[in-house]
Automatic annotation (TrEMBL):
Keywords: Aminopeptidase, Hydrolase, Membrane, Protease, Transmembrane, Transmembrane helix
Gene Ontology MF terms in the entry: aminopeptidase activity; metalloexopeptidase activity
Keyword Thylakoid: no
Highest taxon of the lineage: Bacteria
Pfam families in UniProt: Peptidase_M28 (PF04389)
GO BP term, pick one: proteolysis
Gene3D superfamilies: Zn peptidases
Residue ranges annotated for the Peptidase M28 domain, each copy included: 117-310
UniProt-recorded name of the protein: Putative aminopeptidase
Annotated TM spans: 336-358, 378-399, 419-438, 450-471, 477-504, 525-551, 563-584
UniProt entry tagged with the keyword Membrane: yes
Amino acid sequence: MRKNRHGFLLLVIILFVFCSLTIKESITPQAGHVASTPVRGVAEFSADKAYEHIRHLSENIGPRPAGSKNEQKAAQYLYYILEQNGWKVREQPFSKIVVPNNPLKPEHKIQVINSRNIIAELPGKRPETILLGAHYDSVDVSAPGAIDNASGVGVLLEIARVLGKQEHEKSYQIVFFGAEESGLVGSSYYTAQSDLSAIQWMLNLDMVGIPLEIDIAGKTSTPPELVQQVIRIVRQEQIPFHVSRDFAVMTREGSQGGSSDFSPFLDQSIPALGLGIAGPADGSYHRPEDRIEKVTLQSLETMGQLISKLVEQVAVTGSGQKSWDTYYMPFQLGSYLFIIPTLGLRILFVLGVFLTIFTIVHSLRAKESLFTGDVKGYLFMGIGIPLAAVLVSLMSGTGEWLWQLIKGRMFIWQAYPEVFLVLRIILVVCSMLIALRILCSLPRLKEGKLYWLVGTVLLLLLTIVLGLYRIDLAFPFLFWLICFNLLLYFPSIIWVLIGPYFIYRTHWELLNSQQWSSFYETIHVYPLLFSLLYGMLLIPVLFGAMFAIGQGNRPWDKVLQRLSLPALVCCMSIILGAGLIPSYNKVHPQPIRVQTIWTAAEGVKLGISSSDTLPPNLIKGLDSKGLRLGEDRKNLELPIPDEKAPLQAEVSVSDTGERILNFKLAMKYSRDPYSVRIKLESHKPFTILEMDDFVPVAKLPRKISLEGKEHKGAYSLILERTPPHLGAIQWKIGATGIVRCSVEILLADPSPRYLIEIPQVSPNYEEVYLDVFEF
């Protein structure tokens, strides 16, 4: 056995040396890619001028959702400033159909997004072009979008002024994308319709701030060559940064394929990356609190100088579409980035799999018998360990789910997500101690090696399946598999805990990213599904722990017996005490919607609603105003003086006798709305046979049809579009039953009738016209 241990350790050392050599080679800058001349124009960048651009966009113009009049004003402003600085400017208007694919809202929805890209060119002596981009729209009618993304636009406008005053060999292009918040619509349209052959590389700015987020992932990943050069300059500037490793692994399969406007360029094989602000989103993200006060001159100055150096010093050989290593794995340690290329991952994968197979075969050849013992032991362990794993997974979320019900909240973790993550980890550890104590008290197999064998085979199969699907997804489990190999020769609970290290790391990366809220929200929408998935991950952990307990020298039975009661007390304390943690604070206030609602049947009213129970002090302050409070205390209505609606809608429907409905909707606007949303519902199938330009049928993807989609026994179809809007809509609908038509028209509320100024509350003011028809 000692010789086998030494041979195994030697193989591990060889693998480590191989990884080290691969890492060292991957981060060596390529010769000729870094300019040795001093950077020109860095000092010319003015943070004050960039700040004024941000102020104008976020305050003077205000919220700029796709297609709105404010977005058009912003486009005109960008056009003017770029032209004044010597750039050749043109518009690229577009109308695109978007079919959202949101698992949290499984509805058949078709959106028509209208907007425009602003394209500016500054020709140089050479055709090779560096493209700089930023989106200029904001998320909705209430968010001024100072950080997201007037900050990126303001910095690029000032960069445009600096570049316009210089002599330059390279050519430059700046593109301000529209409708990014609708799903990267503007950048996707640009990359599909434009000649990209001269572009060397693309840099995107989305939310300027420090520490810096370097985003390198879309459906593919940024070329390692470009990543290395950018990070070298960022380190020279001593800017704290974070590389979005978790996005590199996870977002490729997303419907959007990435987190910002550089991603469609990667899809077209153009080297690209994004710069933003690192860290989790605070309460101002996509909220009315995203105002100019969030922007600092220091961050603008730092980013301005960094971008000036990047456009001067970074060079990617050649131009146009390229091929590069896309499934490499980046690892950040402090200010250093290490990269294992795809070839290295494949070699490690093959070595790890063959090493595991060799270890399994060698263990089976040993004199120790694996299959001796009572049948009860096999039965109890075969059922008990998977069942315990699922129960431990369920236990981790018990406190949150309990207090969601008690408090009437959809989520209770918004203010302190890191606290709830720590509590979940403690619950998992304590629950596992209790589960191990119960498993050890049952009639169990004494042949500890069988536990190791089953756990290893499970990990091996999972690793092979993931490796055949996508090699980078297999790496965390490959590392775990190697730890299980070590566990056989050096039985210790340490290997069991270290094995899932990269799974821990991915969750930590997510916690410190803008994607945490949506990820955690998905878990809470599908709790049973995620409990089963995490339970499956805990099965190898329990098998490994049972092996370590059986092989170790410690009296584990006594240790577990002593720890089981404290672990149970700890679990109960966390579950009962989770409700004491506030759900909201000043940084993460409770979002509520304040709507002035016009309906044909009830006139005008003020509606206040939230996904969670409304604050008691808000309800108390409105008691004397004749409010109507919903039973769930999540919405209330207030009567307000009747006034003229901002539009008039008339609907007429005629039936040809064969349930072919001629639907006409005429609208007269006193001011432009933002979105028009029409929802058709029926208990029987229906199809839109003919339609005007409300949805351009010619642009509709072939796989999408204008018919009701079944969900929970009903058929529905949602059609929505941004401005410009039609004054009249005419459709022909084929239906077999009664069709319910809901019309919702959304407008900004420039002068709210009721201002809410309560700590830890974030109001979103809107005006809505609602009407419902049945035919």
